[in-house]
C-alpha cells in the first residue's frame, strides 16, 4: 500500500517549538524508513503551509481554517492517487483539514466516520470551554456544533453527524463538555472499554458498516503519561502502547480508513521528548503495519 506523509508543523497560526516541532522530529528520526521496512511504499513528505500574508491578526480560527484548507489539498491529492494519507500534525486542530480533504476528493455527501483516540473529548465549544483553547474543540467543530467560520475557511462542506463519531480512550471531560456529549449520538469509550476488547470491536464494526470512509485521529495523550512524558495535557490511567496499537489496528483492518492523523508530540522537552518520540515511532510503525488497504476510489475519479 502507498502512503503519503503530510506534515502540519504548526500550532494555531504560527510555526512553533514544542508541539510544532513534532512532525519534523518524527521524519528526522526515520519514520519513513521504518514504514518502508514494514512493507509500505512511502511517498516524499509534503507540508501544509500558510503564508504570513494570508494570516489575519487576531483571527486565529480563520487562520487555522486556512491552514486546514492547505492540509485538505494534500489529503485530497493522496486520496485521488489511491494512497493513504498519514498526517503528522502539531495539534488536533489539523483534523478539520484532513476531513475536508476527504470530502473534496470523494464528495461532500460521502458518509465519513471519525474515530478519535484521545484522553480528552475535544468536544468543547466556546460556550462550554473553561479555557477557550481551540485545540479542545475540533470534534465539536467537525460535528457542526461550533466554528462555522473555521469550517468554512478549511473548506469543510458538511459536518459529520454525531452518530458517525467514536471517541476512544477518554478519561478527562469538562462538566459542560460531558453534558453536551450526552446530548448527542457520539459514542464514547473509556480505556477500560478498550482493554475489554469487545466494546471497541462492536463500536468500530457498527461505524464501519454505516460509512464509506473512516478518518482515524490519534492524540498521543491517549497513552499513559509514562510513555509520552512530554505530553502537554497528560492524564493518568491511559493506554499502554500495545493497547493503543490494537485499538488503531481494529479501525485500520476495516479497510475503510482513508486518512490517519497523529498529533501531540513535543520532542523538545528536556529529558522527556526523546522517550515520547521513540514511543510515537513504535506506535506508528506497529499500527500502520496493519493498514494494508484503503477504500477504492469513487468511479468519478477515473472520469
Plain-language structure description:
The chain has 303 residues and is of the alpha/beta class. The chain is 38% helix and 17% strand. The protein contains 11 helices and 10 strands. The strands form 2 sheets. Strands 4-1-5-10-9-6-7-8 form an 8-stranded parallel beta sheet, sandwiched between helices. A two-stranded antiparallel sheet has the order 2-3. The longest helix has 21 residues, at 60-80. The two termini are 23 Å apart.
Write the layout of secondary structure elements.
Layout: E1 2-8, E2 10-11, E3 14-15, H1 22-28, H2 31-37, E4 41-47, H3 60-80, E5 84-89, H4 95-106, E6 112-117, H5 138-142, H6 148-154, E7 165-168, H7 175-182, E8 187-189, H8 191-196, H9 198-210, E9 213-219, H10 241-252, E10 257-263, H11 273-288
Parallel strand pairs: 1-4, 1-5, 5-10, 6-7, 6-9, 7-8, 9-10
Antiparallel strand pairs: 2-3
Please outline what is shown here.
The chain has a single domain (2-297), classed as Arginase, Chain A (3-Layer(aba) Sandwich), CATH 3.40.800.10. It is built from eleven helices and ten strands. The protein has helices at residues 22-28, 31-37, 60-80, 95-106, 138-142, 148-154, 175-182, 191-196, 198-210, 241-252, 273-288, and strands spanning 2-8, 10-11, 14-15, 41-47, 84-89, 112-117, 165-168, 187-189, 213-219, 257-263.
Beta fraction of the residues? 15-25%
* Structural class by helix and strand composition: alpha/beta
- Please provide the ordered H/E string of secondary-structure elements: EEEHHEHEHEHHEHEHHEHEH
Q: How many helical elements?
A: 11
Domain tally:
1
CATH fold category name = Arginase, Chain A
CATH C-level category: Alpha Beta
**CATH superfamily membership, which one?**
Ureohydrolase domain
Distance between the termini: 23 Å
User: What is the spatial order of strands in the main beta sheet?
Assistant: 4-1-5-10-9-6-7-8
Rg over CA atoms, rounded to whole Å, is: 17 Å
Which bin fits the share of residues in helices? 25-40%
Q: What is the averaged pLDDT score?
A: 94
**The biggest beta sheet, please?**
8 strands, parallel
Shape: globular
Amino acid at each position: 500500500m502507498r502512503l503519503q506523509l503530510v506534515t502540519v508543523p504548526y500550532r494555531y497560526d504560527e510555526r512553533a517549538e514544542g508541539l510544532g516541532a513534532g512532525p519534523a522530529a518524527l521524519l528526522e528520526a526515520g519514520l519513513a524508513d521504518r514504514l518502508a521496512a514494514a512493507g509500505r511504499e512511502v511517498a516524499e513528505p509534503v507540508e501544509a503551509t500558510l503564508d504570513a500574508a494570508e494570516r489575519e491578526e487576531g483571527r486565529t480560527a480563520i487562520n487555522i481554517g486556512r491552514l486546514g484548507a492547505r492540509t485538505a489539498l494534500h489529503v485530497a491529492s493522496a486520496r485521488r492517487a489511491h494512497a493513504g494519507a498519514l498526517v503528522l500534525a502539531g495539534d488536533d486542530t489539523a483534523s478539520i483539514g484532513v476531513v475536508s480533504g476527504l470530502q473534496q476528493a470523494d464528495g461532500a455527501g460521502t458518509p465519513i466516520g471519525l474515530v478519535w483516540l484521545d484522553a480528552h473529548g475535544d468536544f468543547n465549544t466556546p460556550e462550554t470551554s473553561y479555557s477557550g483553547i481551540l485545540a479542545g474543540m475540533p470534534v465539536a467543530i467537525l460535528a457542526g456544533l461550533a466554528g462555522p467560520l473555521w469550517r468554512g475557511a478549511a473548506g469543510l462542506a458538511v459536518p459529520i453527524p454525531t452518530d458517525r463519531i467514536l471517541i476512544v480512550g477518554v478519561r478527562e471531560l469538562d462538566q459542560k463538555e460531558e453534558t453536551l456529549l450526552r446530548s448527542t449520538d457520539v459514542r464514547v469509550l473509556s480505556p477500560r472499554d478498550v482493554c475489554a476488547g469487545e466494546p471497541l470491536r462492536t463500536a468500530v464494526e457498527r461505524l464501519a458498516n454505516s460509512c464509506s470512509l473512516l478518518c482515524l485521529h490519534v492524540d498521543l495523550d491517549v497513552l499513559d503519561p509514562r510513555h509520552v512524558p512530554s505530553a502537554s495535557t497528560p492524564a493518568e490511567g491511559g493506554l499502554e502502547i500495545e493497547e493503543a496499537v490494537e485499538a488503531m489496528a481494529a479501525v485500520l483492518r476495516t479497510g475503510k480508513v482513508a486518512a490517519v492523523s497523529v498529533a501531540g508530540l513535543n520532542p523538545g522537552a528536556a529529558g522527556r521528548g526523546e522517550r515520547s518520540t521513540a514511543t510515537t515511532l513504535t506506535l506508528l510503525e506497529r499500527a500502520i503495519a496493519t493498514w494494508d488497504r484503503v477504500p477504492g476510489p469513487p468511479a468519478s475519479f477515473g472520469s
